[in-house]
């Protein structure tokens, strides 16, 4: 999947959990979910579940723990998609 | 010297009205909120009717963020947050902004069980080996204190935030706990109330006990018949009630509108002795609770203008009337006017006490005693004790000074509160 499309999809997934809309406007690979988007840490698990549903993948616990930034999340998604 | 405590805000989500104005109008007009529930018929319930608050999903936008509404399957949480936040706003109180929480404000908001639909979903997923798919809100929607936690967070309370649970006494007990907390000087303002989920998983156990009426599935509005000769069981209900309870000095200092004063009350248990059991009251304890409330309020029994009873429409109603009559030593035409909200809402279980405390305060504030519906012919055992004129069938518009409210619950627990018109 093209990275730009992946980024667009990820942005749509995290959007409902974002508490800092400015951070969402400026979303890029370096964006940190907690620091820049002010997503409640408890909601990170919901983001991961929504990613699973969107891409038809299963994210193991280790991968889920890494999904704190856009960059890391895209890496996880690409790896899981490749392994499908 | 105990601090004086007053009520300055009300909120309610009831089967016959989803806000205070609607509810007040409904109880004055005798509007029943009981309806046929198709899900109950499909599930082979004997009693296929219930009291259910009705509102559109979009109504929740006024109370919950979009993220809070994702996967929200806890009707009791919805009712409780709506009623609680309505009461807070009604009292003219603000929520905490950034910085310190409101150290002098707390929440005591009870429930019997919370988030049964969410719990059902979780059980299916867990049994299916998919625990990892539960998401982040299974805990907060199903923990009993989810309701006080939501309210405490939305308001920003820094005082005691907790959930009590004592079956059908829960709501009245919550109000009394808040009163005591303020009387001791531990807080200035408490949001007190209770909530109860709707749905088959809450009501099913009662249906199984065969204590719900099954003859009114096609005539639901006639089903709830407290004090009536042909009462045949309580109609299950749901909803939430909330009261902002505040020290008089705090209310006066901020220029709040005072709806009523709470001058005393009592909470006790019959110990499941002397005829009391898990499901039946020890009448000696009930009478003791009423008498202790009078002592705590420092009033005589003859000062009571009206009683808002527990009166569920089971065979226990005559016994309740006898307990009031003996505790107050009043009978016949001398007995206070008595009414039951449940004739119009059904028995809202853990929420009943708080919804009925709201009704009691409304009667003092708006100068009426609402009429009982479905009680054209009171039970003969009741008429041996009190005169039929003391069971109003139509709303009477009159000023009252003091109204007693009691609730009784499984586990043989009792609570009685004495409300008084606020006189400067």
Structure, explained:
Chain A: This is Acyl carrier protein. Chain A: Residues 4-81 form the Carrier domain. Chain A: InterPro entries: ACP-like_sf (IPR036736), PP-bd_ACP (IPR009081). The complex is a heterodimer of chains A (84) and B (424). In chain A, 57% of the residues lie in helices and 0% in strands. With 84 residues, chain A is an all-alpha fold. Chain A contains five helices and no strands. Chain B has one domain (1-424): Peroxisomal Thiolase, Chain A, domain 1, CATH 3.40.47. Chain B contains 15 helices and twelve strands. In chain B, strand 11 and strand 12 (413-420) form a beta hairpin. In chain B, the strands form two sheets. Chain B has a ten-stranded mixed β-sheet, with helices on both faces. Chain B starts with a strand and ends with a strand. Helix content of chain B is 33%, strand content 17%. With 424 residues, chain B is α/β, with parallel strands linked by helices.
Layout: helices, strands, pairs:
The complex is a heterodimer of chains A (about 80) and B (about 425).
Chain A: H1 3-14, H2 21-25, H3 44-55, H4 61-66, H5 70-82
Chain B: E1 5-13, H1 20-29, E2 34-36, H2 38-42, E3 49-51, H3 66-69, H4 75-90, E4 105-111, H5 116-127, H6 138-142, H7 146-155, E5 161-162, H8 170-183, E6 189-196, H9 200-208, E7 239-247, H10 248-253, E8 260-269, H11 283-297, E9 306-308, H12 317-328, E10 337-339, H13 342-345, H14 352-365, H15 380-383, E11 402-409, E12 413-420
Parallel strand pairs in B: 4-5, 4-6, 9-10, 9-11
Antiparallel strand pairs in B: 1-7, 1-8, 2-3, 6-7, 8-12, 11-12
């Amino acid at each position: 999947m093209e990275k730009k499309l992946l980024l667009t999809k990820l942005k749509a997934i995290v959007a409902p959990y974002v508490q800092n809309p400015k951070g969402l406007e400026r979303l890029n690979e370096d964006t940190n979910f907690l620091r820049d988007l002010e997503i409640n840490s408890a909601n990170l698990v919901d983001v991961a579940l929504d990613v699973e549903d969107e891409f038809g993948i299963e994210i193991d616990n280790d991968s889920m723990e890494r999904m704190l930034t856009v960059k890391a999340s895209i890496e996880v998604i690409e790896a899981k998609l490749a392994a499908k | 010297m105990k601090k004086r405590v007053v009520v300055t805000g009300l909120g309610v989500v009831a089967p016959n009205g989803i806000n205070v104005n609607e509810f007040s109008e409904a109880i004055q007009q005798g509007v029943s909120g009981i309806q046929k529930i198709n899900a109950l018929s499909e599930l082979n319930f004997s009693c296929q009717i219930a009291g259910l608050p009705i509102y559109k999903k979009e109504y929740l936008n006024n109370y919950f963020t979009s993220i809070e509404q994702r996967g929200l399957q806890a009707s009791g949480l919805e009712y409780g947050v709506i009623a609680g936040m309505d009461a807070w706003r009604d009292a003219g109180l603000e929520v905490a902004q950034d910085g310190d929480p409101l150290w002098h404000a707390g929440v005591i908001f009870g429930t019997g069980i919370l988030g049964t639909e969410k719990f059902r979903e979780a059980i299916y997923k867990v049994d299916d080996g998919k625990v990892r798919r539960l998401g982040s809100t299974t805990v907060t929607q199903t923990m009993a204190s989810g309701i006080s936690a939501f309210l405490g967070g939305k308001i920003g309370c820094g005082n005691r935030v907790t959930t009590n649970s004592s079956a059908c006494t829960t709501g009245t007990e919550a109000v009394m706990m808040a009163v005591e907390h303020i009387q001791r000087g531990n807080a200035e303002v408490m949001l007190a109330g209770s909530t109860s989920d709707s749905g088959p998983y809450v009501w099913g156990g009662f249906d199984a006990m065969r204590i719900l009426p099954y003859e009114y599935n096609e005539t639901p509005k006639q089903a709830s018949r407290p004090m009536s000769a042909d009462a045949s069981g309580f109609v299950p209900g749901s909803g939430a009630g909330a009261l902002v309870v505040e020290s008089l000095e705090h209310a006066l200092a901020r220029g709040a509108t005072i709806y009523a004063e709470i001058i005393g009350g009592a909470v006790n248990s019959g110990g499941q002795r002397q005829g009391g059991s898990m499901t039946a009251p020890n009448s000696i304890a009930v009478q003791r609770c009423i008498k202790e409330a009078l002592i705590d309020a420092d009033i005589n029994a003859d000062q009571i203008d009206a009683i808002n009873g527990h009166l569920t429409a089971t065979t226990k109603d005559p016994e309740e009337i006898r307990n009031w009559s003996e505790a107050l030593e009043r009978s016949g035409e001398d007995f206070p006017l008595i009414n039951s909200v449940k004739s119009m809402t059904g028995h809202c279980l853990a929420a009943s006490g708080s919804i009925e405390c709201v009704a009691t305060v409304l009667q003092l504030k708006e100068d009426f005693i609402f009429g009982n519906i479905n009680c054209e012919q009171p039970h003969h055992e009741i008429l041996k004790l009190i005169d039929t004129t003391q069971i109003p069938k139509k709303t009477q518009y009159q000023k009252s000074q003091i109204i007693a409210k009691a609730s009784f619950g499984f586990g043989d627990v009792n609570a009685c509160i004495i409300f008084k018109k606020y006189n400067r």
